[in-house]
Amino acid sequence: MSRFKAFLKKKDIEISARRYFIDALGAMAQGLFCSLLIGTIIDTVGKQFGIPWLTATVATVGGVDYTVGGIASAMSGPAMACAIGYALKCPPLVLFSLIPVGFSANALGGAGGPLAVLFVAIIAAEFGKAVSKETKVDILVTPLVTIGIGIALSALIAPLLGKAAMKTGELIMWATELQPFLMGILVSVIVGVALTLPISSAAICAALGLTGLAGGAAVAGCCAQMIGFAVISFRDNGWGGLVSQGIGTSMLQMGNIIKNPRIWIAPILTSAITGPVATCVFRLEMNGAAVSSGVGTCGMVGPLGVYTGWVSDIASGAKAGITANDWIGLACIAIVLPAVITPLLNILLRKLGWVKNGDMKLS
User: Fold this and answer.
1) CB neighbours of 334 closer than 8 A, spacing ≥ 6?
2) Angle at alpha carbon of residue 179, lines to 175 and 185, rounded to 5°
3) CB–CB of 80/101 below 8 Å?
4) pLDDT (tens digit, 9 = 90+) per residue, 184-214?
5) Domain boundaries in the chain?
6) Predicted structure pTM score
7) Distance between CA 243 and CA 247 in Å, rounded?
8) What's the burial of 91, exposed, middle or buried (CB within 10 Å: 0-12/13-18/19+)?
9) Is 211 within 8 Å of 290 (Cβ atoms)?
């Protein structure tokens, strides 16, 4: 047993929840940003501003026409797998071999492709690392093992994982339509908390394909955390903190939350309020890329995802046009309500002595 542990240590194979569900999941979200999300943004900008070189077909593969953004979106599987491999500290041959593994897992996983990529890429990467540089023909063995195991697993489990993720996402979205108030609270709070924790809410939303009304609640929860923390920590961090948290990430407060968990109360309660407001009052839906549901105001990707969803709905005939109420609802949920409610709740916490100056100071 000790020899096996020594081998794992030598190969930097760490079997832990942190390595697989924090490091790998977070990296997977970055892979999604650099492919699917950016591709969606490029397509939307091209269509809305009539930019010919962004809307023109640049490649035709198997009878399918691809724009610049379309190509970026189509590479989401390889991008996710490579990002996961990078987080797992894979050597070059393993990392590059994950490209076809990610493509196959994402394609065979269908709508739940991201979840399939997460599991398949992790297993293929670890086996690839195990055999890396163990033979004199490493250039052959390492890619063969990584790709062979990855493709085989994709064929065996990717469809099942994809269907499971899709059904789970559909169940959440169905429950949100049925009980918008209660599910609005639950989805908003859970996804918002996941955003601030050192895990990836974006990857979770992508894996579950969380869109529609449930996606709107997720956007509300993420925005409540980011804008909320940005505003209530302004006296500690000034404008730099406002920007880094408001359009960066509320995860910056994780160290302070560990020191004083009570600073998290106001943003969480705010998400519990804005979630049902999004689902019951404004009927805010996020019908863009599912990954946008778990991003919040990071680079304003969450609101942009809502907008791209509107554009897609108009193109499909599901929506007549973008109304003033749509814009008001988005502004209220994404910025106004979190910026107003969170400080009011935080005032009460300060009066109770639960939150003090300096508690949210970023180092």
Assistant:
1) 219, 223, 227, 297, 302, 303
2) 95
3) no
4) 999 999 999 998 987 778 888 888 889 999 9
5) 7-165, 179-351
6) 0.79
7) 6
8) middle
9) yes
